[in-house]
Amino acid sequence: xxxxxxxxxxxxxxxxxxxxxxxxxxxxxxxxxxxxxxxxxxxxxxxxxxxxxxxxxxxxxxxxxxxxxxxxxxxxxxxxxxxxxxxxxxxxxxxxxxxxxxxxxxxxxxxxxxxxxxxxxxxxxxxxxxxxxxxxxxxxxxxxxxxxx
Length: 149
Fold this sequence. Notes:
By secondary structure, this protein is α+β, with helices and mostly antiparallel strands. The chain has one domain (27-148): Macroglobulin (MG2) domain (Immunoglobulin-like, Sandwich), CATH 2.60.40. 16% of the residues lie in helices and 41% in strands. Strands 2-8-7-4-5 form a five-stranded mixed sheet, with no helix packed on it. The longest helix is centred in the first third of the chain and has 15 residues, at 5-19. Keywords: Signal. Residues 1-24 form the signal peptide.
């Protein structure tokens, strides 16, 4: 049997397609710690808004969230007068009907906001296995921009 160049390429493509998990192929590195969305994204103090986190891709990267902390932050050029504001600290329930999603509604606190860019920051705490086999916790984060009037 003689192998043609196109046969070799087709065979290699099939091998790589099987070797790479199909689900992970659709997730970018930016989704490693989850995806957070806010609705609406333009807010004034006292406004109610919904925060949704999706951990479908995070789990594909081996990040299995235990705890989530949501903050309002000034990500760049923070002059030191804008400490993060904690919106919620939550524990994910692996036995819930939708364990890869977290959603809550909250009110934008009546804080002093400056003429700055703000984000809702999601810090995801998850376990990893140490070199001796014992678990320890690490934190990774993702953010989404919001406008505060």
